[in-house]
Records
---
Amino acid sequence: MHYGESTLMEPLSKRFVQNSSGIITIMKAIYPLIAALMIAIFPACSGTGEQVKKPPQIRVDSRADSTPIKIKKPAEILVVPDLPEVSAVSDSKELPDSDVLVKIGELKQRLVLNGVPEEWFDEQLQHETFQIHSTIDRNFQKSAEKQVDCDKKRDVSWYFARLGVDDKIEKGKKFIEAHDDIFKRVETKYGIHKELLAAIVGIETNFADHHQRGKYYAFNTLVSQYIFANRMKFAVREITALYNFSQKTGQPPQYYTSSYAGAIGWGQFIPSSLMAFFADANGVPDDMDPFSLEDTIFSVGNYLYKHNLSGKNIGDYEARYNAVFAYNHSDVYVKAVFYIYDGLRDYFSPTEPEIPVYPFEGPAENRSGKVVYRSEAEAAQGLKISNRYSPLNHKRPFRPDTRYIILHTTEGALEGSLRKVRRYGEAHYFVTPAGEVYRIIDRRKIAKHAGRSMWEGQSTLDDYSIGIEVVGFHNRDITTSQYTALRELLRQLKSLYRIKDKNILTHSMVAYGRPNRFHPNKHRGRKKCGMIFAHPGVRRRLGLSIGPARDPDVAAHRLVIADPELHHFLYRSPVILAALDQSAVQEGLSDWNSEDSMVIEEGVNAWRIAREKFDSPATVYVYPDGKRLRGNEIREWNNIPAGTRVLFLKDSREQEQEFEGFLEIGKDGKTVHELAGDLYADATTIYFFPTGLIRTGAELKGSASLQKLLDAPPEGTRVLVGYIYGGYVQKMRTAMRIAGKKWNYPSTFYRLPDGHILNGDEVDDKVIPRRTLIFMMK
């Protein structure tokens, strides 16, 4: 089964072979010569020389779900346009027509040895619809699946956009509802979800769209594959199966239009699969029809069932994956099927757990082969999970990998936190105090929850992790209902993605800050968020083992510790851990339970209170004499008097992965060291000089002529710390060419010519103005 076509079929009433030197026309008169050549080369296989019989009368299926086809008017099916991505095949692929004739003779001999009558083969060659597609190999070279899975030229997001997976979910809803009776019968027989069956038909032929009936005749493309695509073994097998299937159904081969690969019908079965797996819905084998929707849905169910998928293991991810992969040997194809499947399941079964577990009377097996007893099945069904998707969900790209789960606390009440998380798409899941779980961003996509982050040297963890926001505070225990819901959600996600307990981390563990006037190095301690989930007692109640024993990035000197007390809480010594038990959660939090001090005093500076928001305009400093200054208005940070109170403007919480902004020489500091710390000469520090010159710190340091700009930058020079510089968008330099597959990631930022800053998920790649600057968070 293959998705899509890549070339428009020439007029079927003409017979020609097109190669790089022009068009070689094969007129009907040449067929006697071909027949004579066959007799000369293969005398043992020659016929009696009798006139070839005309094709039998074509039976036209009049059922509403099977489009009639009139062989004498093949142009009626030529409705799918040519795809522009098809490129020319090199001349070395072309064969002189004498070699074509030899290949045809060779094919005939091999088919005869397979039991295909030679007169049947000759009859197809003489049929008015016969033609050879000399450029058939291009289609295989340019298939979408090959570009992603094998050539690595494209990524999952490109493939999904090409298929239009979100549109297919919407169309699939109507498709299932329109044919609900058929799907119910198939589910009853095979135990396979209707949403999975519909997803496959949706990708293969756009839900049995008559425009997708096929632009080729199966016989023609299989012969062409033998001659031009180096698929000789495949072609012999499939033409043999096509002959047998044609005999079985009484339909002439010309009834079976196909894809370029020879896949037939609404389910895109190749002929050998038609013989092995195609099932007739009414139990009468001689009227089975690949263009009957009823027969197709039953046959897709039968195919998956014969590949070890049934009602007993439909909740097992690996069982589903293996069955669908057998249908089309492509990883990205399976991912697309599952994306549509999940979208349809969300619609028809919106409260279903992430991993369906069915309460059989006996034990079942989960994805990893572990026995799941009735109690776990009940726990899975007891998880109250529903959709509260962010408006940004459909814009978010798919993650390349899933390695971690990051736990967060909202640091605010339910209503305001949910509104913010949904608005900015800042989590995959949101757990309420009552234990309800909301889906915010599709779990396979990127949610911008971790921001500037690092673990084991890997930065920007949003691209590799699932984020869970729990309503609560970093220094307070969560509710019993939240424990129950979060424990079950983690169990399901761990099973689904095979994530080990050591890779379930807190936001406070992974967040880090760029250098600032208080800390000249990249440093850990940017967030306290979620720190409660590092407590051994909390982790036990969540079904997790004790967390990491040390910070790998501090140990490797990639980061320094900016908050020793927080670091001590997150990574306790073995002696302290041994003394803690499950009932000691509150005792372990005792030093943190009081409200954090919001007053500057000895040992407590502005960063200690406000962290990375210390210089934000949303942070207000109230001096002892009553003077009020915002963070962006303060210049002398070391002169803030003791007793100054720090306030945060109401509802001023900014999105997690925001653009951290430019610093300016003369305004935010006098030297590059004050602005960029130890990163002043790094490739991730970018300087924008008043003259228009743009260079990274590494470029300035490596150039003798530019070193002076680094030593004494002119006032007004702007500095951006912790970003990779992409450059300007130009006519021939698109955002995708600059940022690659990360062009629409939330961690990619666009500075428009008017100064506005947008995330990658906020831009339309078709209307990005020239002279837009692109930066990517490091």
Note: The CA atoms of residues 197 and 300 lie 7 Å apart.
---
Amino acid sequence: MKLKNERNEEILDWTVSEAPFAASEAVEIVEAAEPFETAARPLRPTLKFKPHISPTAALTLIGVSLAVLLGVAGYTAWQNFTLRQTLIPLVQAEDEARLSGDTNKLGEFIDEEVSDWQFDQMFSSQTYPAALAWPVSEVGTVQTVKRLGSDLVQVDVARPYANQPSYGTPQQEAAYSFIQPQFYRWQNETWKRTRPPETYFGERQRLAGGRIEWVFPAVDGDLIDTVRPNVERILNEACGWWACPAEFGLTVTFITRTAISSWYTNPPHPAESLVLSFYQNDGGVVYSANTLILPSPHSVGLPANAKAQQLFERNLTLRILANTLHRLNIMRGARRNVFWMALAARLATRFEFENARYRVLTAPEPVFTPEELWNLRVYRNPGQFSPELRDAQILLNRLLLRLPPEAEQQLFATLPAAQNQVDWLVKALNISREEAEAHWQAVLTPVQVMPLTGMPDKYALYCLNTTGLSLWDGTSNPPYAALPDNVASGVPMSWSPDGQRLLMRMGYFSEQVGVVDFAARRVLWLPYLNGWPHAEWLTNTHLAYTLPSLLESSYMMPGAGQLMVLDTAHPNQAPVEIAEVNYFTTAPDSAQLAVVGQPPGTFEDYVGVLSAEDYEIRWLTSGYTPVWLAEGRQIIYTVSQPQLQLNLLEVQTGLTRTLISPETLAPLLPSPMPLVQSLNLLTVEGDDVYFAAYTSPTLTRNRAPDTLIGRMNLSSGEAQRLYYAKESWVNFYGFFEDQRYLLITAQSYTDNQSSFLIVEAATGRIARTLEGYIHWYGANFPNAHHPLLMDIQGRLFSLREPFGDLEPYTSAVATQGCGEMVLNPALNGP
């Protein structure tokens, strides 16, 4: 029997057995059409008779009644205990399936009446109940179990969350706890996860609070009442700085649908405005003309501790401020100006929850001029305009260092009426046009950045929200910052051969690339790169990198690229520029480079050879992703037409032959042969070519490919399957010293389990499995042919032999919260 309550009343806790009522015990609850009639009040007192009961009989009756009541209470307690013990392992199994990404297993726990869309929403929402909170890989803890009917129960589940993700870094410590109400219906002799009943959320409430109108379901009332006074106060303060019109207001609506409320991108950079970060990156939130639509906390997770309560209030405040910026930036005279956005965000740093470093950032060097930034218009979500916002921030910070404190508010107030960037300073500062132009010229003067140390160290790391770009000696000492606070600290990429210079990128904050020269105590900023560059050190000081040219468009569409060669020892010398090159790789003797580009008059990629002496290119054949063989006389490259395959190119003659094609792969793959999505060369060891083929056995979206790792002998032409994994992401790390064993990781789509695998190269046999180590950035083959592995506590271990013991490389946890480790090759690895 299903019992429906169409009215928005509180649902009573009923005392029933674990299973629904049996058919013979079915009870239909109905409401009387009219109230029962009651007897009229008597006109005169009625006689009352007092029956005689002996004391013994009375005591007996009381005892029997108490026994019955205690028995019922005990039975009810036992039933509740049994129900709780039944649901706890069910919730744990459900969470284990969710954490492993096994959607097929998750489907076994779901009510038949739940649609696919509701299924996705249900489990996506419990992954991220709040922005700036990332799930910890632990199953939830059942807090309470409450019966809502004969076949429906509510289970409140608490889950831990950290203040930063653990991608490629040790598991982060849980800082927040959120409780998600989950509902289960008795179906097919078991409990199945189902949608919340409509009566759970209650009637929609509407409450006016100054500039904000709050709309929320009744169940959220207590939480909204707790946080709204402070949120309204902060908005009023912000509107004072941002000059909101008197009539400005917005509606904040909490919807009862189980909606996703996640932070889809990487965490904000420590020097980035949180208001702008929310404006650009906040997922699952609808910013409309005057309404901010958010999911009900009772659908995605309620704060369960003080830190979670503070985070909820902080996120709500940031979303309201971001929505306000969105509204104000298209009103009146702001004209979607990027300086207006950057200056408004700078004003918001007066709030304690903002990043204070936003006000002090003065490097890297801006790419755009003040005039280019002034003429830019942000017409929609400015996620595409991060470099421009970064440059506007840096120029404003440099400018305001030269001006008195009151100039900040004057600049903001006068911007809407200004005609250009010079007129803006004239009006705001009451100065001449010549003086205004001098200010802009001064802020374009390069800022000299001095590394905090003149000595490189054994490792370079990126430590999120702590020291940024960091150095580490590999001992129990913690990593230490490499750059001062006024620099948007970067992520390490590669060391020069002598270990004195480090190539870095700015990471999440921008795509700017620079070289930290420890020997000269300076930072060199490379020209703007639209995306992470491919860069290689040609010598200790000469760096080669590709630079896409940018079309004249605010969307910065990449055009034909060029290869740049910069002498970092003489940064005042202009770099060598080689046109029409998008990719390159250096030959073993460094005398020539294999390049990929589009020769004049062509519209497809070609592979060519460039001389490192005169920088002349000899184009050879169509293709891409070239890899040199050890002697430097042959190149293996990829072609996609008429079919995907790997070819061998003789550099001297230009002759080519097919190495690996679909015909080669067919005997190595299951039948019928799946579609080959990509074919990658992994490495060449002697006469053997190791490759990976990624195939698609299904058109299901977001599933991992099947992965084949194979080997081909160049002399015999024979191909062999070494390893095959269904629906798995596979990473290849390298060979051990004798080249008999290779190290890979395989992360399964179905159970999300990832392990290091040591595979015998001759047979493809999995010789050893290593669990509990981080695979994204943990594995590294330094100078010798043995890897470093990092465990989830952040400790490093060296594995010198395929079957040897893992030797501790650090005596204590030293890299907590750090990732992207790059070993300095000149300082002798472990």
Note: The domain at 61-195 is CATH 3.10.450 (Nuclear Transport Factor 2; Chain: A,).
---
Amino acid sequence: MRQTALGLVLLLAPGVCAAGELKVYPPAVAVSGPNRVQQLLVVEEENGRVVADHTTKATYTSSTTSVAKVTADGLVTAVGDGDGTVTVTVNGRSLQVKLTASTGVSGWGFRNHVVPTLTRTGCNSGACHGALAGKGGLKLSLRGYDPDADHFALTRQVVARRVDLARPADSLMLQKATRALPHAGGTRFEADSDHHALLLQWVTAGATVPAAAEPELVRLDVFPRAALLKPRDTVRVVVRAVYANGTVEDVTRWAKFVSSEEQAATVTEDGVVTVVGHGEAAVSVLFGTKVAALTVTAPFATPVDAAAFTPPAGAGFVDVLVLKKLQLLRVAPNGTCSDSEFVRRVFLDVCGVLPKPEETAAFLADTDARKRERLIDRLLDRPEYVDYWTMKWSDLLLVSSRRLPQPAMWAFYRSVRQSVADNQPWDRFARDILTASGSTLTNGRGNYFVLHRDVSDLAESTAVTFMGTSITCARCHNHPLERWTQDQYWQFANLFARVGLKNGDRPGEVLIQPRADGDALHLRRGVAMPPTPLDGKAVPEGDSRDRRVHFTDWLTAAENPYFARAAVNRVWKSLMGRGLVETEDDLRDTNPATNVELLDALAADFVTNRFDVKHLIRTVTRSAAYQRASRASPANAADDRFYSRYLLRRLPAEVILDAYSDVTGVPTAFNQLKSAAGDSTTPTTSYPLGTRAMQLPDSLAVSRFLEAFGRPERVATCSCERTADASVGQALHLNNGQTLNEKLRSGTSVVARWVDAKLSDREVVDRLYLAALSRAPTAEERDRFVGILAEAGRESPAARREALEDFAWAVLTGREFLFNH
């Protein structure tokens, strides 16, 4: 491909985009020769979003047909050398476009054209020849991550058959793909298609090898980047490849398109997006080793009064940006939750505990307008906050004796807990773990490297834990949904290849020390790649510093695009029920946040405030978005991701079990540990009676209840380990299990105290509701339960005791108790 000077250049007349402005994309185009084309995209824009696609309605006139021709659909081809103009007209409005054309033609490259064609048509997919063992004797690299091997397989393995240089049209790769010959994979393209033409021209030209002369693909430009449409509207997508030598070309014909939400918008294989519902969809574009995405927004049909989107007085950026998004989508936000809902919600979200009845009563009686802010501040200073967030970060870091000796597990846990208690800035927390050295018993953070001894496991776990992104696929091949290549993976992995481990003198002790040599070898190439952070700069040659220091300098830098966003997204999900990026381990370009502006603003605020986790929690919980009522209205029932209401979610296993202990007054005993293999148990005295479930440092502490309700095993660095899905086992535990029933039957339980104190039925009902649900019962609820208890009391004391247990069981197994709302 020649430099841009040899191409066709289209330049729009200067102007500032205004509401309803006619625009043509791309703003600059390079095309040369009859086999290169550029699709023009003619659109109506408002506030940076496409609201209508006029491409097929526009008329196109070339002033110099000897230089370039333009089809009725806006497809531009250079037919000569020289300058000219194209006039684009839509409904009486015109734009004049300058052009420069050249007939200089370069052939099709294997890496930049043939491989993407095989990817677009599915030939090198995992279901076809890209499978591990290939298909029908032909093995191609998955989505073309190894062009050299693919070229050898097509041109050399079955000489003069897959590629026939003497009779190009008879090449098996063409005959089978068009079903001219039997093909188990079916028809991949037609004989009159652009795909067939490209491959035939490549074979005719001698089936050129992947050459260094082929420019490196730098990025994809996608037009449009955002669209605001209504159901049944369409917009076509134009994709332009930008290469390292400055050349550009339209690659729409060879790109792959995927919609993230097909209930909102679909996309054809040719890149035509159709809105089919309401909401928002990200359309991913994949070509070569690069990916890009555009956002298609389809507002809901029912108009909403603009006053509903006015930020409350003194609103911070969270509410401004949440309401901005809701207004764009026409989703009405809920009003503010009640004080009783708020006090229960924020206790559970910040500290993982229910408020005590007297705390609830005091909060409800408080008339201070700032009482919610003051409560948040008090909660952040409580020891339960330390317990709860230590549990969360221990989940993330896989603290467990499953792969650590007990002394090492305790050292790791205590270091995490101390960091939470000190409100250690998140960047320092990460740096201290990732550069830990010395004894793993003295510096418990070093056990991170004991858990991840394998360099690939260490690299992949670090990317998920501290960057919120998965690179695992790129270990063996280029990532199918992200821009990470296999080469980048092994460059990244080599940052961790010099972490040395050796056994210490004490039981369970490992000594962590950086080594002076050693490299991780590329899985396919068998050579060491320059140690380089993802999208970062390589460690300078000859630099003798610990490579981990180079990595953490890059990771924790204010401008790092992953670190702060991953952290704030995890905290946001914990408080709001759904991450701005879902799942929280899947931050990537093709999985954009539901509110990109908000994620960016939260990350920037986090950095500005020196990675202060408490500040982040305070910022979110003080917002009106967090304090909205949870009950869906007809105006927002379809919203589960834009935060028009607080999202209901089941409480974590540990929180439920601790709440049972708190409400019943009977602590849970943890006196058994599972073996690492899980096939036996041994007694333990490490957890004295009164230890809360969320204070357990070890996921091997035996509790069938916790296992049934989704406690993570802490084996894999993945948020998927903790589950909130309902199961038969949970139902059995609630209905017939010993955990709750034994607590209610205990002679020291709250039920026994009710009986001993001779509380009236009304007092019992009121007290349990306040303790369990942080509210008073409604008149209907009170009358119903008082009636049941009174009837049992008339029968016998034993019957009343049983009725009291049944009443408590009914409240403590109900949805309102088990969920935060």
Note: Residues 747-821 form one domain.
---
Amino acid sequence: MNAPENQHGPFPFTERDLEPEKLAEGARETLGRFRRWRETNSGVVADHIEQHTDHLRRMTGGHRFPAVAGRRFRPAARRADERLRMRREAIYYAAYNMAEVIEPARVDSFAAYAQRHMGTVRNVVSGIDESRGAAGVLDSLEHRFPLLRGAPETRWLAGRLDRLHRMLPDGVVRSGSMGKVAKTVAGVLAIGLYDTFEAGRVEALAHLARILPAAYAYGAAYAIVDDSFQDLPGEYISADDRARCRSLIDRGLSAGERADIAELPDHPLVDELYELQSSILEIYPFEEYRHLYHAAHSLYLAQEADASWRIDDPPPGGLASMYPEIFVKAGMSRVVANILGRRRCVDDAFYSRCVNSIFVGQLRDDLIDHEEDAAESRLTPFTFPLDRADTNPLDDMFAYSAYVVTTVFDGDPDVADAMTYYTAKRMVRVMAAGDRSERFVRGYASTSDLSGLLDAASGVPRRALRTLDSSDHRFRRRAARIMTPRAPTQVDCRTFVADRLGFIEDARHRLYPLTGDNELNEIIAYAFAGTGKHLRPALSLMLAESLGVDPGSLEPALVACELFHTASLLFDDLPAHDGATLRRGKPAAHLVFDEADVQLAALSMISSGFGLIAGLEAHYPAHRVTKIINFLGGVLGPDRLCLGQHLDLALTRRDGPVTADEIIDMYALKTSTAMEAALVPLMMLLDRPAPEIELVRRYAHHAGIVFQLRDDILDATSSTERLGKDAGHDGRKATVVRVHGLAEAQRRLRTHLDGARRACGELAFDTSLLVCLVDHFASRRA
């Protein structure tokens, strides 16, 4: 790490200090120097706070009715206000986003360039067509960056935004994550535009087109890693898959190691990350851009720490112990955006300015988001229990802002004016959020200076909020609202399943509670634990969604379906059948419990399943329920599912040749029958026409065979760890791969995939989820 030259100013970070250990040390050094500076500069801090207050007073006066009405009839005054706003925005943008001070002679030219090429606030937000989803957001981006209008890269971006929208978990989409993606894309493009504002149009367009994929990758990575993998509860992605993702990301960022597709968890967002890594490495080769990957690695590790903090378990070191991680996270988010958006970062002084100045912005954002963070149990400086905090984050926010203006920007008066003005605007929004928010903020007002600032902020008329808002925040909120709704049938099928795991598990616990204290219930609980996919009940829910059926009315059938399937696995694993040793990532049940008791537990699950099916009478006519009980009895009986298992054993024991058709027939009886049992009963409950029921049955037939053929291919080519069950176990069974080879298995897989797709194409309702699922069956990695 570089030896510090100025013991009074912040640590002088350079490009070589972006690795995690060096950054953490430098962050602690800067924060220590800030505390020492603050002790002897209380007057500077007070003056800085007063500058905020003066802005707020002017905002209050400027938005009173006489002033507003007067400007309507004084065009010169309006133009002067607009010029001042543009100058401030240009100065603030350069200082906050790019850690630069624009020379006074260049301020007006950049402000005019930004106005011409980035559009006004009104143009940015009004250009979004709410009915067009990702395409509407793209239109708004083109309003903001007219240079990109019609470029091929923007069409690519529309496709990627739409794809990501289909992949993200429902909770992440509803929280506005797509708005953050769009805002991040716009932020990187804005840096690129600033970087080229004195270049020609051709050069500027070429640069923006080059960085657009990287801008998307950066925004998408936030939504995938931060909002999805780190923030979502455990059922969305298993602990093992999280650990594998963490390892792959860590190795990719620290060493530029390309992920091996075979190592990746079978998850749509992991697939997207894999593609993003490939595109980023192509544009920014690791050896040439090590500093970019070091910065991204430091950002990732800081986000990991941030995600681990919880309100009910704050760090024992107190609030101040969180500051270095927050400092690194904020600083690296801006450093990464600049490396991506600029043609080059001109000098080492940029890194020092950038890393040291953004901490105040993070504190400000945490203040603005304190209610949302508290609702999600996220621990931030403004959700840290006040009675246990060892420092006051509101005091720290304004004091550090004064420190940045004084020591990072050498007290530049234009930067001081712009930064205090925009922070004052944010305070207006915080104080206008309601009485509860105002009381909360006033609890941190430890000095008369801060109390006066808050009084001034609460006095700004609420009608001023719209005109005081910044374009990027308005763009983010508008984009988030537009891309929040999505049709349930238009999501990635794997996302659909993951989003409904909680619903399925809740239904199972309510309808099949296992209240008895006996060994059979212990076996059943063990069988349900682990990394099961809940595929059969999810299939039922996909069809229900396609047909517009309330999933709540199907809960008994969903739980019964899972009971039937899990019972069949207990039987399959027994020594008399497959003799498996591993199931759902843990030892097979008969290796943990008495084998006879395992058989009894499986039988009891089947009996309970039929009992649950009878409960459908609460929502559907009794004669239809009776009809599906009869149907399921036949499907699970000696002519279908059980016959399939018998044939599996018989073909394995046969001394003579086994044909591929015999094996396929066995697959149909075992796997296809189970899928048919998940789909056809719903069609019968709804009294759908016989031709439709036959098409759904055909789909189940082909999809089940595709699933089993892919299972056999994976058994021959994957590891036990990847599958969560015994890999290579099928080496002694009759499978198409073992008996007729990999090429024949792949040929037949394609044939049955086409058959499943054709059946979907002939159905009159939306079958997008079913098509997606069978496509996934054909390519899954586990």
Note: The beta strands are 582-583, 586-587.
